[in-house]
Task: structure prediction
Amino acid sequence: MDRLPRHRRTKIIATLGPASSTPEMIIKLFEAGTDMFRLNFSHGSHEDHAARIEMIRAAEKHVGRPIGILADVQGPKLRVGTFQAGRVTLQPGQQFRMDMDPTPGDANRVCLPHPEIISAATIGSTLLLDDGKLRLRVLRKHSDHLMTEVVTGGVLSERKGVNVPDVILPIPVLTKKDRADLDFVLPFGIDYIGLSFVQQAEDIAETKAIAAGRALVMVKLEKPQAMDNLEAIMDATDSVMVARGDLGVELPPEEVPVAQKRIIRAAQLRGKPVVVATQMLESMISAPTPTRAEASDVATAVFDSADVVMLSAESAAGQYPCEAVNMMDRIITRVERDFDWRLGLDAKRQLPEKTSPDAIAAAAVQVAHTINAKAIVAFTESGATALRVARERPDCPVIGLTMNQSVARRLSIVWGVHAVVAEAAHSMSQAVEHAEKIALQEGLAQKGEEIVVVAGVPFGQAGTTNALRVARL
Result:
């Protein structure tokens, strides 16, 4: 089967679910444009996820391309308790008690089984219920309950979510369920762990310790407190997701686009992959085409230079999973043909850090541009060299050559990188030979055309990018 190099730089993640969990559908989704598959551990059993991983790895063999897997753990879910009648209607201005009593609630009170919220809240704190549809303000605080005033009323059903946007909650980001899920899934060789509810950089340490290098961490930014600590979080994580669903509950809607741009800039500055997610083509859950606004939303992420755009329910539970991926692919491809897209990338290009690897990566991009090279071939032991070159947003494809299948899979979501597993090179001349052969093989360059080769000498050591060579095929 053809190796199908993508003719676009921005990557696509598709979430697997009931609508897309067959071997045939996974291959179709890859052929439509998916670069990485997301497993959502908020839904499905371990058996379901094990079967999906097996199907993805079988599809990978079938298509002859590395395919990444993101295991997205649920994180702490804060919810109210039950009601005698299943639901109540709260009126604006009424008082409503939230306490630790597990007795089913009524129109005057409900159980809030999270002492952390009661202890962390202060008078004036806001509580958002059911994805922000209802808003309460804390009037009085006691050791075992909060007395609140209903600011925005409505129907409240049992077990609906609670968000506390203006308080840092002393809650670990990994629950008992998350730890069990990670213990189960890490031996399968997944590539990224999606980490919810991060509020500060310290929240990432436990997950990194559990992963122990077996997978990279992708922090989901969905809390206002995370935005307050963005720089430290970005330094601590391997990659980041703009999780606009929950972010849009706790931040005012007008703040979300600004936060998205700020997160993308912070990630690009560090050369770390950034994913824009949630509601990108939402209407395609039940319609074969998106709204014009959704098409524009995907295009905006591409213009902003995000590494990846992601589908959630559209591919997991929608009626048109392949069409949604194909539509995303078409929008990205069209934007990347636009003159303003390239101008924008060049205007946003970061200055290289004052290190040899960064200087070589920046020089490779400059040389490739000057000689109109067809590709930059980056020999990469850990993935760092390919990431550095991608950070410069070159105007030709980057072939990330690695001996390590796991590194190739991790590079599947890095902007502009076409990852290939190749045999080791032991000298620069051998590296150039390998690079020429693979550029031809992958259809990214032809005889008589030039490529730029970047590597580290001596070979086999991570983080030693220090050599650049121009080669004519």
About this structure: The first helix runs from residue 23 to 32. The chain is about 35% helix and 25% strand. The mean pLDDT is 94.
